[in-house]
Amino acid sequence: MPQRKKAVPQTKLFVLDTNVLLHDPTCLYRFEEHDICLPMFVLEELDNKKKGMTEVARNARQVSRFLDEIVNDAPRNINEGIALKSDAHKNSTGRLFLQTSFIKQELPENLELGKADNAILGVIIGLQHLQPDRTVILVSKDINMRIKARALGLEAQDYFNDKVLEDTDLLYSGVLELPADFWDTHGQEMKSWVKDEHTYYQINGPLCAGFFINQFVYQENGTPFYAQVLEQDENTALLRTLTDYTHSKNNVWGIVARNREQNFVLNLLLDPEIDFVTLLGQAGTGKTLLTLAAGLMQTLEVKRYSEIIITRVTVPVGEDIGFLPGTEEEKMTPWMGALEDNLDVLNKTEEEAGDWGRAATRDLIRSRIKIKSLNFMRGRTFLNKYIIIDESQNLTPKQMKTLITRAGPGTKVVCMGNIAQIDTPYLTEGSSGLTYVVDRFKGWAHGGHITLLRGERSRLADHAGEVL
Q1: Residues 285 and 194 in one domain
Q2: Where in the sequence is the domain holding 223, given as residue range(s)?
Q3: What is the pTM of this model?
Q4: Residue from 18, 31, 90, 102 nearest 59 by CA
Q5: pLDDT digits (tens, 9 = 90+) for 12-24
Q6: Distance of alpha carbon 462 from alpha carbon 338, whole angstroms
Q7: 326's torsion region: left (phi>0), alpha (psi -120 to 50) or beta?
Q8: Which backbone phi and psi does 459 adopt, to 5 degrees?
Q9: How many CB atoms lie within 10 A of CB 236?
C-alpha cells in the first residue's frame, strides 16, 4: 500500500500596517519563510511620513531604501512576488508582494470609505477571497485596527519580533536570594581570602551555573551576607563582599543607602570597572538621587569623570506646552524638575557651610552638570563623562543603541526608568528599549542591573503606589 504523502505546511501571508514599518524598518526581513504584502495605501502613507528630522521620518526613509534594494533585484513581473532572500538576509526565504492592481472588494456599510485603515482592511478581505486556502494575517501596532479586523472576522496580531519578553515578571532583576542551605551545598573545598577590605569566596556547587556576572546574591537569616558575582562557570563562582553604603562612614555626597537594593546600586555606580548600569524601579525608589550623588562624588571629589551629562526623553504626560524659547539647555529645563529636586536634597547636606557655602557649592555643581537633548546626540563621542539617561523606558531599542554607542573611553552610562510608566505610543513593557538593554547586557563583565523594589520617598507616596 503506497504511503500517504505528508501535506506541505502552507506559508502565511502577512499584510503589514504602516506603523509596523515605521516602528522597525528591518521588519521586512523578520518573517522568515512567510510572505509579506504591502497595500498601496501603506506605500502612500510612507511617502507622507518621509519628510523631516524625526525618528519616524528617518525610519520611513530607511524602509524606502530597503524597498528600493528589494525591487531593484526583482524580475520584470512582480505580480509573482519578489524574493526577500539575499546574502545579508539568508533567513528571509519568503516573498514580498506589492499591491499592483485595485482590489475591488465591498466593505461592510458601517466602514467609512476613503480612510486608509479601512482600505487596508478591504485589501485583506480581497486577498482572503483570492487565496481562500491560505492564512492572511494583518500585522499592526494599532490596537483599534486589530480590533476592527477581528470584528470583520479577519486574523490580526501585534508585531512580536521586537519583544524581548512576553512576561516582564521574568525580566532579570540583578538580585538573587540564596537558599538557607547554600553554604552546606556550596561550601565544600571553599577558598576565601581578603583583599582591599573585601572578602573573596571561591565556591563550587549546582547553583553556580545559574549565576550571572555582576549579579548580587544575599542571605538575610542570622548573619546577613551580601556579595557580588565576579566570575562563574558551570560548577564554580567567585563572590566578593560589598562596601556597606548603609553606614554613615561610607556616605556618598551625604547620602546613605536606606535598603538592600540601594546598597547594591551604589556598589555598581561607584565601581570603576562597571561602564554600564541599568536601574529599574517605581517612583520614589531613589534611582535619580543615588545616581546623581554617585556622579557628583566621582566628578568633583575623585575626579574620575570630567562632567555629568543628563538627558531624558521629552514625552509630555499631559498636553504639550508648545515651543520653548532659549538655548538647548534652557529648552530642556522644564523637563528637568526631577534633577532640580534631587540637587536641592544633595545641597542641603552641607549644613555647616552656611548660605554662602551652599550657594558656592550649588554653582560648582551646576558648572559640572550639562543637560542635553536626545535630538542632537547622533555622531557625538563622549570622553570621561558620566552620562545619565532618565525616563529611558520611553526609548525604542534602536534609539537606545544610538545613545549607548556615543560612549567613548572612560565614560559611564546609567539608564534608569520605570517600565510601568511608558508614555510613547506603540511601545510596551516587553518592547521598551530599557527592557531590551537589561536583557542583552545581563552577565557582561562591565555592566550591571538592579531592580529597586522599596519606595523611600514618603509613607504617602508608598501607600499611593500600592492602592491607586
Answers
A1: no
A2: 168-241
A3: 0.75
A4: 18
A5: 899 999 989 888 8
A6: 18
A7: left
A8: -65, -30
A9: 16
